[in-house]
Amino acid sequence: MIFHLDMDAFYASVEQRDNPALRGQPVIVGAPATQRGVVCAASYEARKFGMHSAMPSATAGRLCPKGIFVRPCMEHYREEPGQIMQIVAKTGAVVEQMSIDEAYVDVSALCQGEDADASLLGAVPLARELKQGIHSERRLTATIGVAANKLHRLGCSLLGREKLGSRPLRLLGLGVASLREPSARQLVLL
User: Fold this and answer.
1) What are phi and psi of 174, to 5 degrees?
2) Which of 102, 114, 129, 162 is catalytic?
3) How much is the CA Rg of the chain, to the nearest whole Å?
4) 115 and 153 belong to one structural domain
5) What is d(CA 93, CA 122) in angstroms, rounded to the nearest whole number?
6) Helices within 22-114 (DSSP H only)
7) How far apart, in whole angstroms, are the C-alpha atoms of residue 152 and residue 162?
8) 59-73, 77-91, 137-151, 161-175: least confidently modelled range
9) What is the CATH number of the domain that holds 28?
10) How far apart are the C-alpha atoms of 105 and 27, rounded to whole Å?
11) Residues 81 and 156 in one domain
């Protein structure tokens, strides 16, 4: 099984957790709107106005005039992933940390001797436990995607075929929905 753990609005969530006055407010971590710079992260309250990371701060200020701009404190944010990784390590999973800036983590827990369906059913409680552990111990929200190895291999194959792996990517998702028995013809996935 492959897990993708994404710390939701990480910098903004840490700011909201540590400063109660910011909770429920449209928090924008980055340079103020009056200065040249970009948005590092935006709380969900700010995202409702169209905020996203790497957006120019001036644009963010126009879209969300009541947004609360907070300068990033990278030293503070760097402490948190280590704490989160300790929670993940308690599962005994093999961990590959992909990025520390937004605390994206890929966690692979190999389930040998089981079919994909059984592995997937076993992974869901583990993912739920991780989310609850991060929330209770660090008071932060995480999103965890779960994929069977077959889906992971398919995704890698598609990336290679389309030569997407040779270009820089920030985030790529692969999803499957409305599964049914195969039809007589092959469908193109990308």
Assistant:
1) -130, 120
2) 102
3) 19
4) yes
5) 13
6) 44-47, 57-63, 74-89
7) 15
8) 161-175
9) 3.40.1170.60
10) 24
11) yes
Mark out the alpha helices in the chain (DSSP H runs).
Answer: 10-18, 44-47, 57-63, 74-89, 116-138, 149-161
Pick the last residue of a domain from 46, 72, 98. 72
Token pair of 124, please? 């869901």
Q: Residue 65 is which amino acid? A: P
pTM of the full predicted structure?
Answer: 0.68
102 is catalytic: yes
Residue 110 resides in a domain:
yes
Query: What backbone phi and psi angles, to 5 degrees, belong to 37?
Result: 165, -175
Residue 185 DSSP class: S
Length reported for the chain: 190
Taking 3-state DSSP, the helix, strand and coil percentages for the chain, each rounded to the nearest 5, stand at: 40, 20, 40
Domain for residue 189, yes or no? no
Answer left, alpha or beta for residue 50, where phi above 0 means left and psi between -120 and 50 means alpha: left
Same domain, 119 and 89: yes
Would the pLDDT of 187 be above 80?
no
Judgement on whether residues 80 and 160 belong to the same structural domain of the protein: yes
Q: Tally Cβ neighbours within 10 Å of residue 60.
A: 27
